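Extended Data, record RsmB/NOP family class I SAM-dependent RNA methyltransferase
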Amino acid sequence: MTDSLLPISKVANTGAEKRALSYASTIFNLFDNVLSTKQPADRVIANYFREHKKHGSKDRRVIRESLFGLFRWWGWIQQLGNHKQEEIFFSMLASAAQLENHPWIDIRDGWLAFSMQYDAAKPLPIPISESVNDKLNTFQQFSNIHTATVEQLLPDWFWQHCAIESGLEKQLLVQAMSTRPPIWARAQQASRQVVLQKLSRDNVEASGSEFFDDTINLGHNSLNLNQVAAYTEGYLEIQDLASQVIGQMCAPQANSQWWDACSGAGGKSLQLLSLMQHSGIEGNIIASDIRTHALTELLKRAKRSRFNHISIAPWKTDLLPVKASYFDGVLVDAPCSCTGTWRRNPDMRWIDDSSAITEKPELQLDILQRSAAAVKVGGELVYATCSLMEVENQSVVAAFLKSNSHFELERLIHPFTGETTTMLTVWPQQADTDGMFVVKMRRKR
């Protein structure tokens, strides 16, 4: 990571102000690097902490949450001006801390004292409501920018491609996108109740979900999973609830043969095996990806989870890496813009542009076409993305079906709304999750 130094001229008079200046310099360096290199913020900050081991857990929390807070509210706070100007950046930090309800009030007040908005007669309140409208009002009062709107928290190009038109639905989506979802997980190799008991013994707060009988909600607390026995022993797998919908829609039967054509590190492969166990006899999964390091990670996770019925078949060429017309089910979790994961990765909405959406559909259709050849007659083809964009979802499926009449759409029941549909979109505001899209098709002949 290259150093991008904030030109600080301010003089600290208290210990809190000294810490505020030190944090500001570090956060500016990270923030400016993300904007200039367009590397994901979680990667940039992970590399930073790997190189700077001096930071304790509190320092790491202040730096990490302040960095992501800047990106979460960037649609508003970028209107304060050029972030490379000292007083403006302090205003941005103070704004983000206020909007996030961060508990380090002394640090926030230090940033505020150095900012262009400082007014000793008008201290900022904390906390404020989680309502995005209340936060908007607070920002407008603090900044005197009364033209700020809720929709600005997502980039213009998002709204140009997003199918939502209702003002209320837009507000609900932005409200969800402006908060962090809980850590969702699954129980495997044991009942959810048994896994919850294991978590309780490690003093980990957790609860079940009304939607699926293996889903576990771990809340918003930071966890060192390597110190959680349920995880190290393979009984707990981290997987967002929206992502779990994909496996549930696949609904693999006992002793069936499935191919996970774009497996990545294998979260859905493990879920499919776990669901097969619920049905009785365990089936078999073959997982493929063009990234060999992801498949290596999959095998590590499978070993930790004690799943033996999984093998890998890397995509090495354009040729199908598995048998044609062989599988009961094929899952294509296609590469996409990942707009559905913006709650966890708020930086991506500002370092990406519309090309993140428009460049993907051709590739997605190509992968879907190739993978369909592996489905046997009567078998199922599942297409999924973590995108909220119609051009990556419904449009790709429509293009596939137009040239593949031997496949037909299956009807699905939306697990969060009860709606019956053939094109299932999970919106983040429906169940405090990421966003996902999934369809299931059956090969007729």
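Summary. The first strand starts at residue 184 and ends at 187.
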